């Protein structure tokens, strides 16, 4: 099987800071690094490192050839990454001494993806393949609807959260992944309990507490997080989702895929960086955490 990921590609500018900046505050960073990021790119790398076959659907500007090359190095098929006139997307990320972060994102080329680009990529997909997207690109609703018509498993990672973006794709979804804050916001916007939404499976991540799996017709199931000391939480959720999708694509039952994803996210938060430091499958299999 294969995974088709309509996802963002960013340059991540990461600043180490004593604490997260407050309103009106000027703060001196204690360190700086730049690497590959974007929720889409992170998920593609994570899925590829989890031994899945991954096709990335996206766009970069004239300044973004390095990002496509980096994805290719990490095992992602980049034939459906277009070169457009917009600047490559980027994110400015501040990480404090406790590993918490705040992020400012400029979408750039990620919002210049056309329906024609998405359609050309999905024309190569087969029934039973997986399609995943997030709220950092254009074309999400078109991609989800097209994937559904073609018989793909359709997955949405609801971040950055926007209730309208979620409801626009909800009727096409097999799996929805979001965090506890996003779940509460979606429930408030729709007037429905999160477990009553018309999606077969919903994963709600709860940070250091782990995640909850809500499956239609079954009791909710909690999966605890592993006990680790985080140094940087950036990209941990994307790593979780990428590994989760890869596990499902490889035929794992949901519970086994969640366990794999939980271990990957636990290892990820012990590292500084995003796509460039996502662990590979052998590291997850060899880890002795929890």
Automatic annotation (TrEMBL):
ATP binds at residues 179, 205-210, 237-238. K(+) binds at residues 232, 234, 268, 271, 273. InterPro entries: PfkB_dom, Ribo/fructo_kinase, Ribokinase, Ribokinase-like. GO terms for biological process: D-ribose catabolic process. GO terms for cellular component: cytoplasm. Its EC number is 2.7.1.15. Pathway: Carbohydrate metabolism; D-ribose degradation; D-ribose 5-phosphate from beta-D-ribopyranose: step 2/2. Substrate binds at residues 10-12, 38-42, 136, 238. GO terms for molecular function: ATP binding; metal ion binding; ribokinase activity. The active site is at 238 (proton acceptor). Homodimer. Catalyzes the phosphorylation of ribose at O-5 in a reaction requiring ATP and magnesium. The resulting D-ribose-5-phosphate can then be used either for sythesis of nucleotides, histidine, and tryptophan, or as a component of the pentose phosphate pathway. This is Ribokinase.
């Amino acid at each position: 099987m294969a995974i088709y990921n309509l996802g963002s590609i960013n340059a991540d500018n990461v600043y180490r800071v004593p604490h997260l900046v407050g309103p009106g505050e000027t703060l001196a960073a204690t360190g700086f690094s730049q690497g590959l990021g974007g929720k889409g790119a992170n998920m593609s790398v994570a899925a590829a490192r989890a031994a899945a076959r991954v096709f990335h659907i996206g766009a970069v500007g004239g300044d973004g050839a390095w990002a496509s090359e980096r994805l290719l190095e990490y095992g992602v098929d980049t034939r459906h990454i277009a070169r457009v006139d917009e600047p490559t997307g980027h994110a400015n990320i501040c990480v404090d001494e406790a590993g918490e972060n705040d992020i400012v994102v400029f979408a750039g080329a990620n919002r210049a993806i056309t329906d024609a680009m998405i359609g050309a990529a999905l024309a190569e997909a087969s029934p039973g393949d997986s399609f995943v997207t997030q709220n950092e690109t254009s074309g999400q609703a078109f991609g989800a609807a097209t994937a559904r018509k073609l018989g793909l498993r359709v997955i949405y990672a609801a971040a950055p959260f926007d209730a309208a973006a979620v409801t626009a794709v909800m009727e096409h979804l097999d799996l929805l992944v979001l965090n506890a804050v996003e779940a509460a916001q979606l429930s408030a916007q729709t007037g429905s309990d999160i477990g009553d939404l018309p999606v077969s499976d919903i994963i709600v991540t709860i940070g250091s507490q782990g995640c909850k799996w809500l499956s239609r017709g079954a009791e909710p199931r909690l999966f605890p997080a592993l006990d680790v000391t985080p140094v940087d939480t950036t990209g941990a959720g994307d790593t979780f989702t990428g590994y989760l999708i890869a596990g499902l694509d490889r035929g794992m039952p949901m519970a086994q895929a969640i366990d794999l994803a939980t271990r990957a996210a636990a290892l990820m938060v012990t590292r500084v960086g995003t796509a460039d430091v996502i662990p590979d499958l052998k590291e997850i299999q060899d880890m002795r955490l929890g």
